[in-house]
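PROTEIN DESIGN WORKSHEET
SECTION A - STRUCTURE
LENGTH: 188
C-ALPHA COORDINATES:
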Protein backbone atom coordinates (compact mmCIF):
# COMPACT_ATOMS: atom_id res chain seq x y z
CA UNK A 1 0.00 0.00 0.00
CA UNK A 2 1.29 3.35 -0.88
CA UNK A 3 1.74 5.79 2.02
CA UNK A 4 -0.63 8.71 2.03
CA UNK A 5 0.96 12.15 2.01
CA UNK A 6 -1.24 13.44 4.85
CA UNK A 7 -4.66 13.23 6.27
CA UNK A 8 -7.23 12.52 3.66
CA UNK A 9 -10.24 14.73 3.46
CA UNK A 10 -13.36 13.00 4.63
CA UNK A 11 -16.15 12.71 2.21
CA UNK A 12 -18.82 13.44 4.78
CA UNK A 13 -18.55 15.47 8.02
CA UNK A 14 -18.51 13.46 11.19
CA UNK A 15 -20.50 14.42 14.24
CA UNK A 16 -18.32 14.88 17.32
CA UNK A 17 -19.19 12.90 20.36
CA UNK A 18 -20.63 14.90 23.22
CA UNK A 19 -18.99 14.18 26.54
CA UNK A 20 -21.01 14.35 29.72
CA UNK A 21 -20.10 17.50 31.71
CA UNK A 22 -21.20 18.85 35.03
CA UNK A 23 -23.98 21.37 34.78
CA UNK A 24 -22.88 24.90 35.36
CA UNK A 25 -24.52 26.24 38.49
CA UNK A 26 -24.83 29.88 39.31
CA UNK A 27 -24.04 31.10 42.80
CA UNK A 28 -27.34 32.63 43.82
CA UNK A 29 -26.15 33.80 47.24
CA UNK A 30 -25.03 37.39 47.37
CA UNK A 31 -23.72 38.91 50.55
CA UNK A 32 -23.84 42.66 50.88
CA UNK A 33 -23.07 45.09 53.65
CA UNK A 34 -24.76 48.45 53.90
CA UNK A 35 -23.84 50.91 56.59
CA UNK A 36 -25.51 54.25 57.20
CA UNK A 37 -23.56 56.87 59.07
CA UNK A 38 -25.15 60.04 60.35
CA UNK A 39 -22.79 62.94 60.91
CA UNK A 40 -23.90 65.81 63.10
CA UNK A 41 -23.31 69.23 61.65
CA UNK A 42 -22.53 71.02 64.90
CA UNK A 43 -20.35 74.09 64.63
CA UNK A 44 -16.83 73.61 65.99
CA UNK A 45 -15.92 75.31 69.24
CA UNK A 46 -14.68 78.88 68.86
CA UNK A 47 -10.90 78.91 68.71
CA UNK A 48 -10.67 75.14 68.44
CA UNK A 49 -7.99 74.12 65.98
CA UNK A 50 -8.98 72.03 63.00
CA UNK A 51 -8.11 68.36 63.27
CA UNK A 52 -4.95 67.77 61.32
CA UNK A 53 -5.62 64.99 58.88
CA UNK A 54 -2.83 63.89 56.62
CA UNK A 55 -2.54 61.02 54.24
CA UNK A 56 -4.20 57.96 55.70
CA UNK A 57 -1.01 55.92 55.99
CA UNK A 58 -0.90 54.21 59.34
CA UNK A 59 1.59 55.73 61.78
CA UNK A 60 4.20 53.24 62.97
CA UNK A 61 6.24 53.16 66.18
CA UNK A 62 9.39 53.42 64.07
CA UNK A 63 8.28 56.76 62.55
CA UNK A 64 9.76 58.66 65.51
CA UNK A 65 12.22 58.03 68.33
CA UNK A 66 10.29 57.38 71.55
CA UNK A 67 10.93 56.25 75.10
CA UNK A 68 8.81 53.70 76.99
CA UNK A 69 7.23 54.19 80.39
CA UNK A 70 9.89 54.40 83.10
CA UNK A 71 10.30 51.47 85.48
CA UNK A 72 8.51 53.31 88.24
CA UNK A 73 5.83 52.66 90.86
CA UNK A 74 4.12 55.83 89.57
CA UNK A 75 3.00 54.17 86.32
CA UNK A 76 -0.68 53.51 86.96
CA UNK A 77 -3.48 51.66 85.19
CA UNK A 78 -7.17 52.43 85.50
CA UNK A 79 -10.36 51.03 83.96
CA UNK A 80 -12.07 53.44 81.58
CA UNK A 81 -15.32 52.81 79.73
CA UNK A 82 -15.71 54.86 76.53
CA UNK A 83 -17.63 53.73 73.42
CA UNK A 84 -16.03 54.41 70.01
CA UNK A 85 -17.80 54.61 66.67
CA UNK A 86 -16.15 52.76 63.76
CA UNK A 87 -14.77 56.10 62.49
CA UNK A 88 -13.27 56.94 65.89
CA UNK A 89 -11.75 53.47 66.23
CA UNK A 90 -10.26 53.82 62.73
CA UNK A 91 -8.68 57.18 63.63
CA UNK A 92 -7.11 55.67 66.76
CA UNK A 93 -5.74 52.75 64.73
CA UNK A 94 -4.24 55.09 62.11
CA UNK A 95 -2.58 57.40 64.69
CA UNK A 96 -1.01 60.83 64.25
CA UNK A 97 2.45 61.93 63.10
CA UNK A 98 3.39 65.53 63.99
CA UNK A 99 4.38 67.86 61.16
CA UNK A 100 5.30 70.91 63.23
CA UNK A 101 6.52 71.47 66.78
CA UNK A 102 3.12 72.92 67.71
CA UNK A 103 1.50 69.54 67.06
CA UNK A 104 2.78 68.28 70.46
CA UNK A 105 1.69 64.62 70.04
CA UNK A 106 2.92 61.46 68.36
CA UNK A 107 0.21 58.77 68.48
CA UNK A 108 0.51 55.24 67.13
CA UNK A 109 -1.22 51.93 67.75
CA UNK A 110 -0.33 48.26 68.00
CA UNK A 111 -2.92 45.74 66.89
CA UNK A 112 -5.69 44.88 66.77
CA UNK A 113 -4.81 41.25 67.31
CA UNK A 114 -7.09 38.32 66.41
CA UNK A 115 -9.24 38.99 69.49
CA UNK A 116 -9.62 42.72 68.77
CA UNK A 117 -7.19 44.07 71.39
CA UNK A 118 -5.54 47.34 70.44
CA UNK A 119 -3.03 49.53 72.30
CA UNK A 120 -2.82 53.22 71.45
CA UNK A 121 0.39 54.96 72.57
CA UNK A 122 0.56 58.72 73.30
CA UNK A 123 4.02 60.33 73.23
CA UNK A 124 5.13 63.95 73.40
CA UNK A 125 6.46 64.93 69.99
CA UNK A 126 9.27 67.12 71.34
CA UNK A 127 10.82 64.58 73.72
CA UNK A 128 9.36 61.24 72.61
CA UNK A 129 8.40 60.62 76.25
CA UNK A 130 5.47 58.25 76.70
CA UNK A 131 2.61 59.92 78.53
CA UNK A 132 -0.27 57.45 78.23
CA UNK A 133 -1.48 54.23 76.66
CA UNK A 134 -5.10 53.32 75.88
CA UNK A 135 -6.41 49.77 75.93
CA UNK A 136 -9.12 49.37 73.29
CA UNK A 137 -11.30 46.46 72.19
CA UNK A 138 -12.35 46.52 68.53
CA UNK A 139 -15.39 44.61 67.26
CA UNK A 140 -13.77 42.69 64.41
CA UNK A 141 -16.92 40.76 63.48
CA UNK A 142 -19.24 43.75 63.30
CA UNK A 143 -18.89 47.24 61.89
CA UNK A 144 -15.55 47.97 63.57
CA UNK A 145 -16.82 49.93 66.56
CA UNK A 146 -14.72 49.84 69.68
CA UNK A 147 -14.52 50.53 73.37
CA UNK A 148 -11.76 52.04 75.47
CA UNK A 149 -11.52 49.69 78.44
CA UNK A 150 -8.49 51.10 80.24
CA UNK A 151 -5.76 53.71 80.41
CA UNK A 152 -2.19 53.52 81.64
CA UNK A 153 -0.10 56.61 82.38
CA UNK A 154 3.07 57.91 83.96
CA UNK A 155 2.22 59.74 87.18
CA UNK A 156 5.86 60.43 88.11
CA UNK A 157 7.60 63.79 88.51
CA UNK A 158 8.52 63.67 84.81
CA UNK A 159 4.86 64.34 84.01
CA UNK A 160 4.26 66.61 87.02
CA UNK A 161 2.44 63.81 88.86
CA UNK A 162 -0.58 63.49 86.55
CA UNK A 163 -3.74 62.38 88.33
CA UNK A 164 -6.37 60.16 86.69
CA UNK A 165 -8.75 62.98 85.74
CA UNK A 166 -5.88 65.05 84.34
CA UNK A 167 -4.61 62.24 82.14
CA UNK A 168 -8.13 61.46 80.89
CA UNK A 169 -8.57 65.12 80.01
CA UNK A 170 -5.15 65.27 78.33
CA UNK A 171 -5.82 62.16 76.21
CA UNK A 172 -9.34 63.39 75.36
CA UNK A 173 -8.08 66.78 74.19
CA UNK A 174 -5.24 65.18 72.20
CA UNK A 175 -7.76 62.89 70.48
CA UNK A 176 -10.08 65.83 69.73
CA UNK A 177 -7.45 68.20 68.38
CA UNK A 178 -5.13 65.97 66.38
CA UNK A 179 -7.35 62.99 65.48
CA UNK A 180 -10.75 64.66 65.30
CA UNK A 181 -12.10 62.11 67.81
CA UNK A 182 -14.36 63.48 70.55
CA UNK A 183 -14.57 60.96 73.35
CA UNK A 184 -18.09 60.90 74.82
CA UNK A 185 -17.13 60.30 78.42
CA UNK A 186 -17.99 63.50 80.20
CA UNK A 187 -14.34 64.57 80.42
CA UNK A 188 -14.56 67.19 77.65
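SECTION B - SEQUENCE
RESIDUE ASSIGNMENT:
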Amino acid sequence: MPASPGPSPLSSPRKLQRRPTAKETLNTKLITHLQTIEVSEKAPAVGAPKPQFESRRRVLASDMRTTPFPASPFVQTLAWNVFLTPEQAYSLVMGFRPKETEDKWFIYSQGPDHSGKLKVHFHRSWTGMKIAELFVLIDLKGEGAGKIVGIKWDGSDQTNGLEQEEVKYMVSTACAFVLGVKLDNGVL
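SECTION C - NOTES
The helical segments are 86-94, 164-179.
Confidence is low (pLDDT under 50) at residues 39-50.
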